[in-house]
Amino acid sequence: MQSKAVIFPQIETRNLEGRKFHLPADFEGDLNIVILAFQRWQQDIIDVWVPHLDALAERYPGLRIYELPTLANRYRMVQRFIDGGMAAGIASREARERTLTIYTDKRRFLAPLGVTDESTITLLLVDRQGRILWQGAGAYNPNLLASLEAALASAP
């Protein structure tokens, strides 16, 4: 019996440069690494991952990386303030372009992904059709990176 593929939930968002995205359709890579973060301090974890993920993107043409700070709907009323503060704190235009803030019912968004722990980041490998090909969580470690790279190497 074949298990049903997990699909990235449909959601509308904007990057920190103001460009609108309809996910997962607007993920630009053949394969996409999506980093979900839930608390401001988790940016430190992401910052350690990014050089390793950028190195993967150099080795795998068509691979794109996205950071998705994921916030509850109640923050939507101060979205301009939050996004503006994040954008002001990120010097790199490339980083602002790949950072897409999500304001949503987090339980409804995260449940289909099986994400139940917001105490750390979640990393996803998503194909062009929105299928989740790999999932991991937590701070950078070589074994987790090797697992992700194995998934990239075996992706269709």
Give your account of this protein's structure.
With 156 residues, this protein is α/β, with parallel strands linked by helices. The protein has helices spanning 43-59, 79-88, 93-97, 106-110, 142-154, and strands at residues 11-15, 20-23, 31-37, 63-72, 100-104, 122-127, 132-137. Strands 2-1-5-4-3-6-7 form a seven-stranded mixed sheet. A hairpin with a 4-residue loop joins strand 6 (122-127) and strand 7. The relative contact order is 0.23. The mean pLDDT is 92.
List keywords for this structure.
single chain; 156 residues; alpha/beta; seven-stranded mixed β-sheet; 5 helices; 7 strands; 28% strand; globular
Structural class: alpha/beta
Order of helical and strand elements: EEEHEHHEHEEH
Main sheet properties? 7 strands, mixed
**Order of strands across the widest beta sheet?**
2-1-5-4-3-6-7
Mean pLDDT: 92
3D shape: globular
- Classify the helix fraction into a percent range: 25-40%
Rg calc: 15 Å
Provide a count of the helices: 5
**Low-confidence sequence ranges:** none
Q: For the terminal residues, how far apart are their CA atoms?
A: 21 Å
Q: Please report which band the strand proportion falls in: under 5%, 5-15%, 15-25%, 25-35%, 35-45% or over 45%.
A: 25-35%
Annotation, overall tally of beta strands? 7
Write the layout of secondary structure elements.
Elements: E1 11-15, E2 20-23, E3 31-37, H1 43-59, E4 63-72, H2 79-88, H3 93-97, E5 100-104, H4 106-110, E6 122-127, E7 132-137, H5 142-154
Parallel strand pairs: 3-4, 4-5
Antiparallel strand pairs: 1-2, 1-5, 3-6, 6-7
